[in-house]
Amino acid sequence: PFPMMNRWFTRYLHGIEKGVEKDRDAWITREREKRPTGYSSFPDSKASEVILFPAAVDEHNGSLISEKSNDQKKLSLIDDHRIKTKNLIERKNEKHRLLFVTPVLEKDLRISGIPRLTVRVSSDKPAANFSAYLLSLPWEKEKGTELYDNIINRAWADPQNHKSISSGDSLVPGQYYDLTFDFMPDDQVIRKGQQIGLMIFSSDRDFTLCPKPGTRLSIDLNGTQISLPLVGGMEEFHKACGKK
Asked: Taking the model in full, what pTM does it have?
């Protein structure tokens, strides 16, 4: 915002002491607000890691839960970059993604920090894309616009780089590889009445290469989890999900 820029310019271009160095360290424009809110730090000092595990309900859908099970299925999806992200959540396109959701939130829940995904994946081709989105569901269209405000965060990985980020190896079809990678830094409030969803798919038409559709990815849920930096940690997550 101009008033904030003006304070810094006044101090360092004109040498006028205005105490700008004592302002809050982090400024975040909250959802549906125009002016930023000041915070003492980013990530928020009250945020801690919450590990959630995908649990299958059917072949393409499931839950995000805090209790780990070692008896999960291996699920698969078929790559098709031609489908828009917002349409991947639809049942008619479910064979092209996996979607795992939390219970409907009974109170607001704030993510502050860098989410991290660990996944065990195999491909039927020597190369494949891997994409993951964090979503706020159900998908809602902003009134009077064509903008959508349901994508919380995005992440991508190349399974060929499972050993090193600087060099890749061709994949052995059918062999599983473990990947761990970060989403982008974020600070966002997920509103009461929404669900947090983890959507796993292959090629992202907006950000990755777009190979010929048809590559099949298989996901071993026993080796898959997501870490969310939540303000209030696991206790706050359980409260938001209605657990006492």
From this structure: 0.90
